[in-house]
Design a protein that fits this description.
Length: 121
Amino acid sequence: MKKIIALFTVLLLASCGVVGVGKNHQTIIYNNSSDTITASATSGVYKIKPETSLTVYSTDGIDIKSKNAKCQEPKITSNPNGAAIFLDIIPGFMFGIIPIFVDAVTNNLYHMPESYYYTCD
């Protein structure tokens, strides 16, 4: 019984990014321009009409394109998940590489920003 409890404790501590501080792969994109934009993410391609917003799921990055040639074409990139990395190192050092490995496999070492405002005049 002690071995089972120890195993569950290890798995819980080993997945700091998975439990609670991870899983932020959704970004709300606000289109503040007068043209429809296209957002390309790992989950598909989305069209966002002017003056509207849409929640886009992506584990990597999001490319935004506009039909207006004068507008920029930004890429929304993921940021390091500081809380998950910190928890993987501080209490996770007792378990070696397991915490970082679990979060890397589940793609929780990085997260997307909560929102992005696209503007083109």
